[in-house]
Write the structure tokens for this entry.
Amino acid sequence: MTLTGSRLFDPSAISIPLATLSCICEELQALKRIFFNSCKASDSSPYILVKSRNQVIDNNIGSKSNLDSHFSCIKKEILNSNHAEDFVCLCNNLNPGYQSASEADWRFCSIVANFINPRWLYQDQAKILEYIFVNARKNRDKNHRTDYLQKTIGKVLMARNNSNKIRNSFAEKRSLNQNNLNPRIISSSKNKKCKVDKNAIIKICNTMKIFHLGRSIKNFEYSNDVEDNYLKATIPSSLNHIDLRYYIQLLFQYIDAVEQLPDIKLAQTEFLPININLILKNSNSSTGGKSYNHFQASLNKLSDVTLVYNKKITSDGLYRAHKESLLSYKILHQRFRKGVTVNDSNQWRKLAVKMHPIILDISKEATYNYSLFNKNSYNSLSSDKIKLLYYYACCLTFPGGHPVKLSLDNLLSLWPPTNLRQVKQKRKQEMIQLLQDFAALESKLDDLDISLIYLNYEIVGINLKKRKLKVI
């Protein structure tokens, strides 16, 4: 059901019921591994969402051969992780969209520190981090100052170690609480797999259905009345494919920031920093005042959306109900000066956002056997309208499920309704072109199989199937 009230896909058209997928309830999972998977996949090499790592350090770590060896291993792990894109960008650019080059240095060190074994001696961790920084980070004069580099590395390692202590303390308390539970309850729930309905597995896609093609229009509501997964969205000014572009980029950065928190519960109350220039850069927008104004307009529309949901989160009937904006934001800007408006580009300084709790719920309550959509696939698409089409395709498909067939009439419901014949015909031609462009990009998509449906040599629809993924 789209926000216009039309059905984009009718499940009753499939003779075999939608299969339910298994999930293992487990708290405090990394958001990226659930929403966005950056690994490539093929029939012979499925996605891998969980990777084990166990390295032992050599006593003679100071030798160049050992440093090179550890550098090579750590670099390989980073390039196979979700941090690969940021790492490569920081290796090749002095300041790729950060507030300063020093902030970019901090980000580089933080990424590398995540892949250094915390059981190593502090001196060994610092030595490896310094070696990787000097040999991989984009060079600048300040990096050769020993005091600057040592201070930066020391602060990064201290922050990382403090986060680990908090996590370990939280895990110990959780373990003590579990040990105090009734043994009969523990034995009955241990290793229990919960069956989760497709609608619950892709909770976040319910919020995505508030986006559409075309111009924004006023006063819409979207409702998902599925039992145990109720959601209602109130949308004062509807959101189109341009707003989707900014929302996804905000979501990418927000998830990165949540990953750095010592406790995911902090994200329920904390506003997390967002790099506006990086959003504009990744959206292929200029950093001029006009682009900032467009971004602020989308930010206002997104923050006006109210979500009400009531989710069943455990098998014993425990629910969570919540009502909040899709996102809330704070902007820190310069004081108003005569002749300069707050909306001017040089007034923008810092942005912080807080996302709706629905985004956090899915990370705390379950680990699923696939990501909702692939970040690499999404970023490979240049057209905002094709990105929206790709996202809807991901919302309607799941690994191992039956192929989903969408007709042109189904897809035309992505636009707001109209009775004008000329407008309908124009939209039909545009959708046919979008489908052709979408199908031509299949080789760039790691998670979808796409084939066009023809009738009398004319395109009448599209077949979609999500490739099966695997958790290890």
